Structures are given as C-alpha cells and as structure tokens.
Amino acid sequence: MNIIQQVSTTQKAVAFTFDDGPNPEYTPQLLDIFDEVSGRATFFMMGKQIELYPETALDVHVRKHEIGNHTFSHPFMTQISLEECERELLVTDELITEVTGTKPVVMRPPYLDFNEEVQAITDKMGYPVIGSNNGGTRDWEMPGVDHILEVTRAQVGCGSILLFHDGFGDRSQTIEAVRILAKELTDQGYRLVTVSELLQMSES
C-alpha cells in the first residue's frame, strides 16, 4: 500500500497540511500565518464542512493554497462499502470543484485508515494518498503547544509532510504552534509548499 509520509528530496521544503476544515474561526487564522511568511499549505477538507462554510473554502483557494479531499463525512474507509468509499470521495471532489473551480488532486483518508481495497478506488480516481511524518503530534488531543512543537521539530527535514487539524473542537494550540513553526522553519531556509509542489520535487 502506498501512503506517502514524506517526499524524497534534497530541497529544503516542507508541506504543512490541515485536516477536517474548513473552519470559519481557525482556517482564516492559518491563512494569515502563511501570508506573513509567504508560505503555502494544503487543506484536506471534509465535504460536510465545505457545505457549511463554502466561503472559507473559497478563501483558501483564492489565497493560493491547495485543497485536498478528506471525504465527505470522515468515516473509517476500511469499514464502509467500496461504493460508499467512492461516493465519499466523489461528492467531496464535486464540492471542491464547484466552490473553487479546481479539482482536488491529492487525498488523505480519515484516521489514515486505508487498505488495498480502498487504494483501488483512490487509484481509479487518480489520487496520491497523503500521510505525514509527525503523527506523534496528536494535536487534536490538545496536548499543549510545547508538545506539538517538540514532536514536529524532531521530524522536520527536507520533504517532510506535517499534519495538523483546523477542524473539530478548540484548535487554538495548533494555531499557536503553527505560528511558531512557520516562522522558525522559514528563518531556517525552508520553503513552505503545497503537497502537490512537494511531490514534484521528488527525487526517488
């Protein structure tokens, strides 16, 4: 099975990714953070949330960030029928296209729950499946800004894909940690790019 956790590249570039939005409170704060450092990020959005906040989704697109498919309702994909899997992705694909005028080209399975059967569907739809290499961050549990920073810093390198959340619950710790990381990494000479941009740098 092929979940991309990191991209093999010698270029100093990392991809920040955010799951479960768009969220009208936290997503715009992230956009401002990336504006400040001239960086770009990828937002793996749920169809359900796009229906609720289409203007937030459009704002992400207008401000030159990438939107990826994170299913419609956030199921465990290995626990639903393949027809349902496909529908979860198709409906979200259509919503993203409708709101932004651009088709999503990357996806991330909820809970990173994935198997070969589900991969047959993502392959059919042409999606690379994106994981991350800072999973230990567990930012959704609100473990504290320092924990999020510490775990993420330990994993940062050329081609890192960093996973955070801008949806569900209080995401203020994530926002704070990302504010610090975005500036820190930019100061260290990293470029903050979208997942698609990072995949194009792959040297493997």
Automatic annotation (TrEMBL):
<dbReference type="InterPro" id="IPR050248">
    <property type="entry name" value="Polysacc_deacetylase_ArnD"/>
</dbReference>
<dbReference type="Pfam" id="PF01522">
    <property type="entry name" value="Polysacc_deac_1"/>
</dbReference>
<feature type="domain" description="NodB homology">
    <location>
        <begin position="12"/>
        <end position="193"/>
    </location>
</feature>
<protein>
    <submittedName>
        <fullName>Polysaccharide deacetylase family protein</fullName>
    </submittedName>
</protein>
<dbReference type="InterPro" id="IPR011330">
    <property type="entry name" value="Glyco_hydro/deAcase_b/a-brl"/>
</dbReference>
<dbReference type="InterPro" id="IPR002509">
    <property type="entry name" value="NODB_dom"/>
</dbReference>
